[in-house]
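Practice problem 4.
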């Protein structure tokens, strides 16, 4: 089973989202920055690497919010959602077609990839 890490970067009551591009089963849907865990890499290390590659941020995973096994059409994935803190950098769309800082109370207004929807209720409880 593939493992994937996702960063829930919370700042000032907002969360960073990225919009996927064309292709795949989740085209044009919103997601949290992250990606596939590589061989020999921990989910937390993957998160740090993927945030640098996808949105140009140096981040620190603070806690695991949720772990979800989701049955995608091409096989199940194990998805780790980490509450994450930005250490440095300004977010920019390096792989997504668009990125946004969205108020937590507005997350339900965005069409998310199905596996990412699993964690929205948990995020709502994490507002500092």
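Answer key:
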């Amino acid at each position: 089973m593939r493992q994937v890490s996702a960063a829930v970067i919370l700042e000032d009551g907002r969360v960073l989202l990225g919009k996927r591009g064309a292709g795949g089963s989740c085209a044009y849907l919103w997601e949290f920055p992250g990606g596939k865990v590589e061989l020999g890499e921990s989910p937390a290390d993957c998160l740090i690497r993927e945030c640098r590659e996808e949105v140009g941020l140096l981040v620190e995973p603070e806690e695991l919010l949720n772990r979800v096994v989701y049955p995608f059409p091409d096989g199940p994935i194990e998805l780790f959602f980490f509450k994450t803190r930005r250490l440095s950098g300004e977010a920019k769309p390096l792989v997504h077609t668009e990125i946004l800082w969205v108020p937590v109370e507005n997350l339900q207004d965005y069409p998310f990839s199905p596996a990412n929807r699993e964690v929205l209720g948990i995020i709502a409880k994490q507002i500092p």
